[in-house]
Amino acid sequence: MLVRQSVGVPFSFGTFFKHLPALKRTTIFPYRISRRALSTTRILNSSYFETLCPSQRDQIHLYVDVLLQWNQKMNLTAIKEVNEVMERHVEDSLAVIPPIRNSYLSHCSSSCDNLNLVDVGSGAGLPGIVLAIACPGWEVTLMESMNKRCVFLEHVIGHIGLPNVQVVRGRAENLGQNQCFREQFDVAVARAVAEMRILAEYCLPFVRVGGLFVAAKGHDPEMEVTNAERAIETMGASKLQVCSVESQSPHGQRTVVVCLKARPTPRKYPRDPGTPAKVPL
User: Fold this and answer.
1) InterPro entries given for it (predicted)?
2) Which of 44, 114, 198, 260 lies 20 to 30 A from 207 at CA?
3) What are the CB-based long-range contacts (under 8 Å, 24+) for 178-183?
4) CB burial class (10 A; 0-12, 13-18, 19+) of residue 229?
5) Residue ranges per domain, the chain?
6) Which residues touch 182 (CB under 8 Å, ≥6 apart)?
7) pLDDT tens digits along 230-239
8) Residues 6+ apart with CB under 8 A from 153
9) Nearest-CA neighbor of 124 among 165, 60, 76, 65?
10) Which CATH number describes the domain made up of 49-278?
């Protein structure tokens, strides 16, 4: 959950780095992802990773390498094995791209080559960093509250070499009221952050009128999505589609929920920090 507002925070890399293990790039490159197929209701069965060009695959390998190295000293992911990170984190993140593209082209614009996208509650950079690698024409903003995670994100961006990514530290409730960010993005995405009622209030204030809010959810979010309809409507949007995405999660599939923003979000939203989670709409 996002905790304080700060833009362009100067991180203390030297002090933080000495507690972290040295990177060993050889741990990832021999690995090649399993070809077990993924699918959605609108997307052909495939491994999304295998559709990337060689340089993008190398960048993904570097990202996973750094993620697992830093995860030895700080809590970035509960998954410890390379194969599982690739299958359950990377593939899940890549699976968000086709629904974004399809929905954006159908309802927002004739082109989605240069999207301005925000990943709200980015955590370890999922899905934001993966999206930035796969779609280098997109400008990606990673919003995260925890300073240590922001340090990690800044480091991995520099290590991989991602000129299309920036990190912003702060709470969604505060940043959503900041005119530098409010209704400035074509797309807001979130993965494993909160339930849909809360997530709608976190994310939709960042989306411009005519843009998309895209949430990666679990295998059976029907009740959660239904319960969130009032919150989505209050934020000025409506549910556009719910797309099932086969993945390597314990339940075998995940769901991408896409909402289209038709009206400006009322000025009083998002509410004060902590309120959306304590008193969901």
Assistant:
1) rRNA_ssu_MeTfrase_G, SAM-dependent_MTases_sf
2) 44
3) 178/5, 180/7, 181/118, 181/141, 181/206, 182/206, 182/265, 183/207, 183/208, 183/209, 183/264, 183/265
4) middle
5) 49-278
6) 176, 205, 206, 265
7) 999 999 999 9
8) 122, 124, 125, 129, 142, 144, 167
9) 76
10) 3.40.50.150
